[in-house]
Amino acid sequence: MPYAKQHKQNTRKHILASAFTLFTAKGFDKVTVDQLMRNCNLTRGGFYAHFTSKAELYSEAIKFSAQNSMLNDLKPADISDKQWVQWLLDKYLSMDHVNGERACPLAFLSTDIVMQNEAAKMVYADTYLNFNRLLSVMVRKYCECSEETILATTAMMIGGVAMARTLQNQQASQQLLSACRNEACLKLGLKN
Prior knowledge:
By secondary structure, the chain is mostly helical. The chain has helices at 5-26, 33-39, 44-47, 54-67, 81-92, 95-98, 105-108, 118-139, 147-166, 170-187.
């Protein structure tokens, strides 16, 4: 008896989540299809029921992780736009995020993406542009903010998390994240 459609969708999500975790930990080149499928307790043959290649999986894992990151959370109705932006900065520029909690593909794949194919680079770039659009819409509801300010702020946020992941000293990582958060707050009208 064939599997239900929901089972196939759940298996695909499981593969995508596992792939993202492995790609962020090891990079594209150091992850094999066999490792990935073993990590999912599935067979190699099952991979091809969902993806045509590891390169396709990489692009799809970026999309999947972006859709499931904190950047995609809806603003609760009981908080203001300004409070939501503050929440986003606090969560994004945190040690929990650096340690992989709801990891953003922009920060976690920032060095690996340069070695990937054009399709993956386009997905990554689209994810970045969507991040900017989302933040811009929210910030402009409570303050005047230029496109350049939004671009600089998101680049600092992504770079801050990427750099904090490389530091071997938690205190230095926290100091970096705090500095980025303070600058982002100033730029986005959250501190007077």
